[in-house]
Amino acid sequence: MDRKIKKKKWTAKKIAIYAGAALLVIFIGYNFFLSGGGTRLNVERNKINISTVHEGDFQEFIPVDGNVLPIKTIRLDAIEGGVVSRKHYDGGILVEKGDTILELANNDLLQSFVREETQAFILVNNLENTKLGLQRNQFDLRRNLLELDYQIDAAKDAFERGKKLYDDSIISEQEFLNLKREYNRLKDNRKIQIETNKFDSLNAKLQIRQTEATLERTRENLEMIKRNLDNLYIKAPIEGRLSTVDVEVGESIAPGQNIGQIDDLNGFKVRATIDEHYISRIYAGLNGTFTFAGNDFGLAITKVYPEVNNGLFEVDMAFDTIPNGIRRGQTLQIRLQLSENITAVQIPRGSFYQTTGGNWIFVVNEDETEAVRRDIRLGRQNQRYYEVVEGLQPGEKVVVSSYRGYEDKDILVIK
């Protein structure tokens, strides 16, 4: 009878497999214990920058570039069109207020002036003649009324005498009626003379008013044309430096065409360009500083231009004190202040930010033998420091140099 052979539970092969697995687990655990729970990397001390977290005054500002400009620039535009007959100055020189820069010729405008001037002379003559005619009419009326009054007085005497003679039957009725009609005719004639003269006077006065109104308009037109003729002489409105006058003798100039500009040299301003990211935080009165010839100077925003071009917008800034030696066209590196001084935990700016985005950092232990990765949160920044919102305490040390090659490391072993 065959006997059933029991299969061995622990074979040499199985024991070898389990032993190998146990050794692997022990090795992994040992490495994990040595690494403190993360990947490690050896770094040389002289290849990293270590800075200390500190608490102190913090002010958020951003660097912006500004160009020095004159405090005021006056455009020279041609009010009247014409042909350049004379060019007194080229650009780049100092001019006084009232200096003539260009002379233009405009024959049409000159002819209009002559026509209006002639019309004004004609209207003046007509007005004087009308006034003289009115005065003559007044004299004629007085003379006629004097003659009529004399005739009426004589006719009245004849009529009264005739009435007595008629009553005494000395003259006929026909003779009496003739005397009466002559007397009445002269009285009616006097009334007509007065009414006619009144009408003529009113008509003459109306003509005078109309002529005076027309003359006034003509004189206004004449003054306007005179001003237009004066505008053919393009003059400096202020004292300053004349820019390039980009026209030549014989060239036609259209009304409104710009021929140059004058810079007011009594002061300067700064035109700065700022990233549109900050547009909601920029306003008139915001302060900034810059360094010139070894000294710091202050600025303040006076005007914000809302137009955004290529991701940038512009502001005008006024100097608190204008530095000696500043010139138009110079570029200034301005630190534009976005907040007041506050007390904040902060760390120096460094290349680590390009890798971490301010979300984590390597924190160095006291004896500077290791740096352990730690999550943090940064807030505002300026040219020198980042504000630490959470994750770090004053006195701790951090690595602020580049993290290139450290992205997936948890611990830096400093040699």
From TrEMBL:
GO terms under cellular component: cell envelope; membrane
Signal peptide: none
Pfam families: RND-MFP_C
GO MF term list: transmembrane transporter activity
Residue ranges crossing the lipid bilayer per the database entry: 15-33
Keywords annotated in UniProt: Coiled coil, Membrane, Transmembrane, Transmembrane helix
Coiled-coil blocks: 201-235
Localization (cell): Cell envelope
Record-annotated Multidrug resistance protein MdtA-like C-terminal permuted SH3 domain positions: 344-401
UniProt keyword Amino-acid biosynthesis present: no
Record has Transmembrane helix as a keyword: yes
Record-stated family: Belongs to the membrane fusion protein (MFP) (TC 8.A.1) family.
Name recorded for this polypeptide: HlyD family secretion protein
